[in-house]
Amino acid sequence: MKRRLVILATASALALAACGSPQDAAAPQSAKVSVGLVYSQTGALASYGKQYVDGFKAGLAYATNGTNKVGDRTIELLESDDAGDPAKAVSAAKDLIGKGVKVIAGSTASGVALQVAPLAAQNKVLFVSGPAATDGITGANRYTFRSGRQSYQDVLAAKSFIADPAGKKVLVFAQDTAFGKANEAAVTAVIGGAGATVTALEVPASATDFTPFASQIAQAKPDLLFVAWAGTTASAMWQALEQQNVLKSTLVVTGLDQKASYPTFGKAGDSVSFLSHHFPGATDNAVAKAAAAAIPSGLDLFTPDGFNAAQMIVHALQAGDDVEKMITALEGWSFDGIKGANTIRKEDHALLQPMFQVKLVGGQPQLVKALNPDEVAPPVAAMKS
């Protein structure tokens, strides 16, 4: 049987939040600087939100040498739960802005990030988006930065497995969400741009029965299947693809999700090649070691996004309270993170960073190849405002 290539890119999303720091309650306001975190404490992406905030707090300790201070001021974290709902995120962000907060971070879901970004520009506050992968955040406006990877970087990592896409039929299997649509656009640009014919099969985010969709894929017989997925339904989706013999007749390249997802691949995991944003053990640098020591549950998929965000925000706050000076400080800044070398591209605020090729051995990830930031750099986006 002719073998076909299946590419699965997993997702991600972004969230911001707000809760006070009890130990600082008695400190005078002038001795504090508040940072709002709006992220998914609950909802479908709550596990991603937990990884993000654990990474943020570890990154804050790392960037401030354990003091959680910039100069003589304590950084106060105000956390809010958006539950993955853009309306809740916007309400939380407005509340924080009304309290005088000039720096907001978080966003587990792409739909959330796309709503908070214009709000940041309208109110001239700094917004550092997190796990939200939609390409629309890059170049959204001068006030918006990102601490994680974007869909285009996922797709470029996936393309690294393909010898020659020219003449191939590519089917994008994705949730009908901002994240899914961003992946479809990236696949069309990257793999379609290399000569492949790209079509899409979009699935409602509320879907729980994936057999009909898996059957359509089997009948379509694409040369390449790119699956963009986020959240708790991934296991059921994988099972449907397996039951319809999609996986048995293909060479599979899939995005590696969080640690909890590893068992969902079962025996199929041994024959799958994975692209990865991050996994425990992807790097062994000083930053990764410090992060692992600070987080009892260990590193996971979106730990670097939170850790990066804290490093970026501390660097921005060192420039003072003027948001324009914060922006100038961040643009073009290079720093070492959990994944390795990161650079904030001045032109559009894309975060240039490594990506990884991985295989599962006995249900555990092993590094095949680290892709340097230049290999997976998205094209420069025009700054919208």
Structure description:
- With 385 residues, this protein is α/β, with parallel strands linked by helices.
- It has 10 helices and 18 strands.
Short description:
It contains ten helices and 18 strands.
Outline the secondary-structure elements.
Blueprint: E1 4-10, E2 14-17, E3 32-39, H1 46-63, E4 69-70, E5 73-81, H2 86-98, E6 103-108, H3 110-123, E7 126-129, E8 144-146, H4 151-159, E9 169-175, H5 178-190, E10 197-203, H6 211-220, E11 224-229, H7 234-243, E12 250-255, E13 272-276, H8 286-294, H9 303-317, H10 323-330, E14 334-337, E15 340-344, E16 351-352, E17 355-361, E18 364-371
Parallel strand pairs: 1-11, 1-12, 3-5, 3-6, 6-7, 7-8, 9-10, 9-11, 12-13
Antiparallel strand pairs: 2-3, 2-6, 4-5, 13-17, 14-15, 15-16, 17-18
Helix pairs in contact: 1-8, 1-9, 2-3, 4-5, 6-7, 9-10
